[in-house]
C-alpha cells in the first residue's frame, strides 16, 4: 500500500490494491446499446419539443443528416435563479447570499442512444463549440464569477435522464474548494516560477506510464493521486487558465481527445456511470500564470463512505499505472 | 433559493427547495426489522467466531444477557498497514509515503438486526466506551497523527455487511481537508477570541430552530449550511478539541444523545443509509483553543454529482429548519 499526495490540492489518497477488483471487474453489466434511437417520452429527443417547458437559448445546425446538433435551454428544475443579486448578508453569526446563478441544460445530440464515446469527431466538436460559446457568453455578465460546465452520465452519477446531456451552472461566488487549489498553485509558482499543472504535464508526458492518449495540443492521463479508479484528466499542453480562451484549433483537438477518452471508458468498462467537469479559472483570475484549466472525468465505480467524508482522504483500490495500461491496451 | 456559508470551512451550499421532495418522501422502503437476530453466514454474529480470520483486540463484557457487548478486531481488508513507516519520499515531482496506518473493525452488538437507533442506552454506552478506549490506545503511538472513528450504515453508505459495525483508521498524516478547517478556526479565533464551534453552539441553542435534541453536555442540530438533507451534528457544549479527553459523565450523555438522534433517523426516515464520523483534533493540536470535536452524521438520500465534484459546492434540496422540525415532531 502507498499514500500519494495530489499536487494540486495536497490531498492524500491511499492506494490499497489488496481491496482491488481486477480492472475488468469494474465493467458494468448494462449497455447503452439497448436504448432506442428515439424515445417518445424523452424531452431531449428530436421531435419531442412539446415536452419542453422552456424555449431554446441556442441551437446549432445539424451535421450527419441530423435535424439539429446541440441545443441549450434553461434547466426545468434550476438550482439557482438568474434574477437575484449576489449581495452577502448575515443571519446571526452566519453568512448567506441570495440564490443567484444560471443553470442551463445542453442536449448533446438529437438521438436518444448516442453518448460522447459513440459520436463522430465533428459531433463532439459541436458539443465543445456549444460549451465554449455559452462559457464566453455567460462570462460577459460580471455577476458570474465562475462558469462550471459538467456532465452527469448514468443514474449513479446523478443523471435523471438517459439522453446524453451536459449542464452549466454560473455562480456569484468562488468555491472555497477552488480557492484552496489556487492558493496551492500560487505557492508552487512562488517556489518554482512555473505553473504546477505545466510541470505535471511535462512529467507525465516524459514518463508516460499514466498517459492514455496525446495529440498536438492535449494530453490525457490518470493522475498520480487519482481519487477514484479510472479518474482521467484531459489537460491543454499550452498554459492557459481560462477555458474560454482556447483557440479554434484547440477546440478541434479537445473534441478529438475527449471523444477518444470517452470511447475507451465506454468500451473497456462497458459504459460506466461517470461525471466530468471543466475546471477553469474564476473571473479576475483568467490571466494568472499559475492556474491551468482541465477536464476531470470521475467514473462511479466505488462508494464514498464515512472515512472519505470525515477526512477528505480517499481510498482508491486501483493503481493509476495499471488503470492507464488497461485503458491503453 | 438561498446560498449559505459553512462557518467551519467557508464552503458554500445552495438550498434549492424547488428540487425538493417533502421530508417524508426521503423515507426508505426497506427496514431493518426484516433481518434475523442471528445469521449463520455473518462473521460478526455471536457464535460465528470461526468465520473471523483475526483474533479480537478487545471484547467488552455482555449486558442485557448478551454473551459479550462489543468486539474490536483488525479489518480483514485493511486500507493501511501497521508495520510501515511514515517517511515521505519523492517520485519525480510528486510526494508519497508508505501506506502506514491501522484499520480496525468494531462489532457494535452481538445481534445481527440491532443498530444504534434500536439499542438500549447502556448498549450504546458500551459502543462509545469502546470508541474512546481504542481512540486513546491508538493515540499512544506517536506515528498516529489522526485517529478517525466512523460508521458506514447500509450499502449506499459503503457498508458491505448489514450487522452493525463501526471502523477506526489511524493515519500518519493530517488530511489537507482538516488542515483547511483548522486554519479557518484559527482565523476566527484571532478575530473573536472564541472558538467558532462554541459560538455556533451558543447561537443554535439560543435560536433553536435547527436544534433536534439537547442534554446537559451535548447538543444535536442540523447545521445552518448542511451539505445534504438531514445532516446532523452532535457537539459537546464544553470546549474540547480532543474526543479522547471526554469525561465518564460525557461518555454517558454522548451515548444518550447519539442513540436518540439515531432513533429519530431510524423512525422518521425508516432506517436510511448513512455515514457518521467523529472529527477530533490531530495529535499536537489536542489542546488548541480553536478546535472542537464533533460527530457528523450524513444520511445518503441524494446523489453527489458533477457540479459538486468540480466545485465543492453542494446543492441541498432540503432546508435545515424544515428537516429539524420534521425530526423533532
Give an overview of the whole structure.
Two copies of one chain form a homodimer. The first copy, chain A, has a single domain, classed as HIT-like (HIT family, subunit A), CATH 3.30.428.10. The first copy, chain A, contains six helices and 15 strands. Chain A has helices spanning 121-139, 176-192, 196-207, 248-268, 306-311, 320-328; strands spanning 2-5, 12-15, 58-61, 68-74, 89-91, 94-98, 101-107, 146-153, 165-171, 211-214, 218-221, 232-236, 274-279, 294-299, 314-316. In chain A, the strands form three sheets. Chain A has a ten-stranded antiparallel beta sheet, sandwiched between helices. Chain A has a three-stranded mixed beta sheet with strand order 1-2-15. The first copy, chain A, has a two-stranded antiparallel ribbon with strand order 5-6. Chain A starts with a strand and ends with a helix. Chains A and B meet through strand 1, strand 2, strand 6, strand 8 and strand 9 of A and strand 1, strand 2, strand 6, strand 8 and strand 9 of B.
Amino acid at each position: 500500500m502507498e499514500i500519494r499526495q495530489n499536487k494540486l490540492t495536497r490531498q492524500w489518497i491511499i492506494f490499497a490494491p489488496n481491496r482491488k477488483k481486477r480492472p475488468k471487474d469494474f465493467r458494468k453489466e448494462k449497455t447503452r446499446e439497448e436504448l432506442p434511437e428515439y424515445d417518445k417520452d424523452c424531452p431531449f429527443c428530436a421531435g419531442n419539443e412539446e415536452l419542453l417547458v422552456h424555449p431554446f437559448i441556442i441551437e446549432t445546425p445539424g451535421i450527419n443528416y441530423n435535424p439539429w446538433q446541440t441545443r441549450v435551454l434553461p434547466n426545468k428544475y434550476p438550482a439557482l435563479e438568474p434574477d437575484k443579486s449576489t449581495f452577502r448578508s448575515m443571519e446571526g453569526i452566519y453568512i448567506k447570499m441570495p440564490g443567484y446563478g444560471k443553470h442551463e441544460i445542453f442536449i448533446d445530440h438529437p438521438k436518444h442512444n448516442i453518448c460522447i464515446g459513440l459520436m463522430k469527431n465533428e459531433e463532439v466538436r459541436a458539443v465543445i463549440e456549444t460549451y465554449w460559446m455559452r462559457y464566453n457568453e455567460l462570462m460577459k455578465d460580471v455577476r458570474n464569477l465562475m462558469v462550471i460546465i459538467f456532465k452527469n452520465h448514468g443514474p449513479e452519477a446523478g443523471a435523471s435522464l438517459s439522453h446524453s446531456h451536459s449542464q452549466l451552472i454560473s455562480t456569484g461566488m468562488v468555491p472555497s474548494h477552488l480557492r484552496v487549489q489556487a492558493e496551492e498553485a500560487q505557492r508552487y509558482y512562488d517556489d518554482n516560477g512555473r505553473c504546477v499543472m505545466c510541470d505535471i504535464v511535462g512529467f507525465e508526458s516524459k514518463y508516460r506510464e499514466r498517459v492514455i492518449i496525446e495529440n498536438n495540443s492535449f494530453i490525457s492521463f490518470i493522475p498520480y493521486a487519482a481519487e477514484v479508479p479510472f479518474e482521467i484528466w484531459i489537460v491543454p499542453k499550452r498554459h492557459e487558465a481560462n477555458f474560454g480562451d482556447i483557440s479554434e484549433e484547440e477546440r478541434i483537438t479537445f473534441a478529438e481527445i475527449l471523444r477518444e477518452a470517452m470511447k475507451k471508458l465506454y468500451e473497456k468498462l462497458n459504459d460506466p456511470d461517470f461525471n466530468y467537469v471543466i475546471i477553469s479559472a474564476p473571473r479576475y483570475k483568467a490571466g494568472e500564470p499559475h492556474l491551468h484549466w482541465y477536464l476531470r472525468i470521475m467514473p462511479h465505480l466505488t462508494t464514498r463512505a464515512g472515512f472519505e467524508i470525515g477526512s477528505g482522504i480517499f481510498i482508491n483500490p486501483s493503481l493509476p499505472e495499471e488503470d492507464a495500461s488497461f485503458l491503453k491496451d
